[in-house]
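Lab notebook page, bench 4
Experiment: in silico fold of construct C2
Operator: M.H.
Input chain length: 64 residues
Purpose: comparison with the prior construct
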Amino acid sequence: MLELFALCDMIYGEAICKHVRGAEDGLHIHITIDDIPPHQAANIAARLRNIIPVTCVVLEPAEV
């Protein structure tokens, strides 16, 4: 996943991917990125949701 962000000249502060089983079976992704415009964050989240097992994507500013 780092490579995909690096290709866009973006470095994230933290990325957590967790496989969730049960009613919400799929992949939950939590990513923190500094200085990213809201429309760009929404675009990244939408693209990540297109990965079939992804059920939740959370993007938020990284803590300083």
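Observations: The mean pLDDT is 76. DSSP finds two helices and three strands in the chain.
Next step: discuss at group meeting.
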